[in-house]
Amino acid sequence: MSGLYEFDDKPENFRAWQSSLTNAVAEVQLTATQELDLMTKWLGKESGEQMRCIRAVHVNNANSAT
């Protein structure tokens, strides 16, 4: 998890941030809910708010939100 950094909400940096998240998640076995928790923690202010809304919609099926 040491390679993770907070996403700065700039679209041009999303793919690099997503790659670091994907690599970190691949190192450990996480449930979909744990992955959402991790993603929400490392997203920026605006993107984190969007993720919280997505998560609320998929509260009973975290796999649909990932």
What is the typical, i.e. mean, pLDDT? Answer: 89
**Unreliable runs, pLDDT <50, ≥5 residues?**
none
How many domain units? Answer: 1
Shape: globular
Can I get a quick summary?
With 66 residues, this protein is mostly helical.
Structure, explained:
With 66 residues, the chain is mostly helical. It has one domain. It contains four helices and no strands. The radius of gyration is 11 Å and the shape is globular.
Describe the structure using short key phrases.
66 residues; mainly alpha
SSE layout:
Blueprint: H1 14-27, H2 32-42, H3 45-57, H4 62-65
Helix pairs in contact: 2-3
